[in-house]
């Protein structure tokens, strides 16, 4: 499977964000960053998450700890929604 990568410096320049923000996300374990020949990249599959973190940080003034907590809670919500879907499908068997 091929992964598309986005150059961090170019992304930051186009979106007017500080590259140190990306580094903070990487250090917090919220973003995967790769170094290739002196250039830093992140996977395109994480672009949606990065845009969400950027809005939280710059538009809502949420600090990194808050972003990490929100990320964790959103993950838990997704897990719980999946569990509810699974339980509903099991319940349908007994409703017939």
Write the layout of secondary structure elements.
Layout: E1 5-7, H1 8-15, H2 19-27, E2 34-36, E3 39-43, H3 47-59, H4 64-95
Antiparallel strand pairs: 1-3, 2-3
Can you give a write-up of this model?
Helix content is 65%, strand content 11%. It has 4 helices and 3 strands; from the N terminus they run E-H-H-E-E-H-H. The chain has a 3-stranded antiparallel β-sheet.
Summarize it.
The protein has 96 residues and is mainly alpha-helical. It contains four helices and three strands, in the order βααββαα. It has a single domain, classed as Multidrug-efflux Transporter Regulator, Chain: A, Domain 2, CATH 1.10.1660.
Number of helices: 4
Number of domains: 1
State the order of secondary-structure elements, H for helix, E for strand: EHHEEHH
User: What is the first-to-last residue Cα distance?
Assistant: 43 Å
CATH class: Mainly Alpha
Q: Which regions have little confidence, pLDDT < 50, spanning 5+ residues?
A: none
Per CATH, the architecture is Orthogonal Bundle
Shape: elongated
For the biggest sheet, the summary is: 3 strands, antiparallel
- The name of the CATH topology is Multidrug-efflux Transporter Regulator, Chain: A, Domain 2
The structural class is mainly alpha
Strand order, largest beta sheet: 1-3-2
Strand content range: 5-15%
């Amino acid at each position: 499977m091929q992964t598309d990568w986005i150059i961090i410096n170019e992304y930051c320049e186009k979106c007017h964000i500080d590259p140190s923000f990306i580094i903070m996300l990487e250090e917090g374990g919220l973003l995967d960053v790769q170094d290739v020949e002196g250039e830093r990249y992140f996977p395109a599959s994480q672009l949606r998450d990065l845009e969400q973190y950027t809005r939280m940080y710059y538009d809502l003034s949420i600090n990194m700890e808050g972003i990490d907590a929100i990320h964790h809670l959103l993950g838990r919500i997704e897990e719980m929604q999946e569990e509810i879907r699974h339980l509903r499908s099991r319940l349908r068997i007994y409703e017939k």
